[in-house]
Design brief:
about 240 residues; alpha/beta; five-stranded parallel β-sheet; 5 strands
Length: about 240
């Protein structure tokens, strides 16, 4: 069973000693980054780890616990994931609280959800793992994330002003920003920096097209209304 007292756990700590991890909120990219961090740490410690994923709305307690506790010839450590975990915990809260007090050493349980209702379970989880809120960042945080992401994942750089401009135009959802960052990296070429002019060129056209689409919709609506009025007047 899980050893306790070997480290001080915090709500942000993710390493090979994590036995339960809660990832909750609406920002999918942050969830994925945290999950990748945990999986990498487990793989470094135990060899390659492949996640086993359950739907929390339909999975039974036995499904999840048997998978965690069953020895595998293929993997030294189990990584079991429950999506829609708030629904799973709602059905099996007492059993989850008991498990969190003494989780197995040979497996890590990841609970992913949009909503998460705090309670006594959280206290037990924080002793053996981590609880991470994954909501969209504030605009300055999103801009800094873009600067770091450009270097680490897209083999390019983006200056602070360009990053802030991209956030201003697209919002703070990281998945959308990362997709656009990838397009910009391809547009400027390998190793070339992304500046505000590149952001303007890439996002300005989309903005213009959106504006034209709105104008066309308004004009079409006005034309339809006028046609209907003319038809009614001719009766």
């Amino acid at each position: 069973m899980a050893k306790r007292g070997t480290r001080k756990s915090t709500s942000k700590t993710l390493d090979a000693t994590t036995r339960i991890c809660v990832l909750h909120g609406t920002e999918q990219m942050r969830k994925q980054e945290a999950f990748d961090q945990l999986r990498s740490a487990l793989s470094d410690e135990h060899g390659e780890v492949e996640p086993i994923i359950f739907d929390g709305q339909t999975a039974t307690l036995a499904d999840v616990f048997d998978e965690l506790r069953t020895f595998s010839l293929m993997q030294a450590h189990k990584l079991v994931v429950v999506d829609e975990a708030d629904q799973f915990v709602k059905r099996f809260r007492e059993a989850m609280e008991r498990y969190a007090k003494d989780p197995v050493d040979s497996g890590t349980l990841v609970l992913r959800a949009v909503r998460w209702n705090r309670g006594n379970l959280d206290k037990a989880i924080e002793k053996v793992g981590a609880i991470i809120k994954c909501d969209p960042p504030k605009p300055p945080e999103a801009a800094k994330w873009l600067v770091d992401r450009a270097k680490s994942e897209h083999d390019t750089t983006i200056d602070k002003d360009a990053a802030q401009l991209l956030v201003d135009r697209l919002g703070v959802h990281l998945m959308k920003l990362d997709t656009e960052l990838g397009k910009l990296a391809a547009m400027v070429g390998p190793g070339q920096p992304i500046d505000a002019d590149a952001v303007m060129a890439a996002t300005g056209r989309a903005s213009d097209e959106q504006a034209w689409a709105v104008q066309e919709a308004v004009l079409e609506s006005m034309l339809s209304a006028r046609t209907a009025a003319d038809a009614a007047g001719g009766m």
